[in-house]
Protein: GTP pyrophosphokinase
Organism: Loigolactobacillus bifermentans DSM 20003
Amino acid sequence: MIEDWDTFLIPYKQAVDELKIKLRGMRKQFQQENTHTPIEFVTGRVKPVDSIIEKMQRRQINEKLLEADMQDIAGLRIMCQFVEDIYQVVDLIHQRADLEVVEERDYITNVKPSGYRSYHIVIAYPVQTVHGEKKILAEIQVRTLSMNFWATIEHSLNYKYQGAFPEEINERLKRAAEAAFMLDQEMSAIREEIQEAQQLFSYGKGQQVVD
Ligand code: 0O2
């Protein structure tokens, strides 16, 4: 039994904090170089203890194998404007020397039956602790703003209905997922036009580079 969850989660919190800074730093660098940034914003969280315990029971994960078998105790989300940006971000993550990609799941090409779309990357990330280096698994979810909108709504409804959606809601959610993806496709079709306008806007108004 893990008796002290706070201590167990210390390196996970450190990994999330460090990765948030690094990924936000990538956005800042694109802005400073006055080029289109594929990263709109970044969020991160350590999975709450009750969710970890619930997932261990659901997936029959032995506590001794928790660190290896639960890949999303440390979780990062990168939101992008365009689907093309997602694949650029994935390439950028692959090129980094400070982390190792261990698994990838492309739920954009292979959309989940629920309608969920995102690109998941599982990384091994070394954190420096007072007891030496510890490699932490973290899951980075890369998605468009539109995919994020859908996933956030579906997640709250899932919480309310515990996964057992009434049929009508189920159907509407699936339709909403396709509508969200259609929005992404329409935006992609005029991506160059949009990016040109965004550059003119940010230069013209003399906007500050912000987080
Ligand atoms: P939370 O609250 O987001 O942290 P499993 O967790 O068993 O479903 P697996 O193989 O561990 O699956 O990992 P997977 O499918 O790559 O990623 C799981 C996470 O992806 C979920 O975390 C969600 O964040 C997201 N996700 C996957 N499928 C869906 C979906 O249909 N709808 C929504 N809204 N999100 C999804 P958790 O554990 O649910 O928790």
User: Anything to note?
Assistant: The beta strands are 41-46, 74-80, 100-106, 119-129, 132-144.
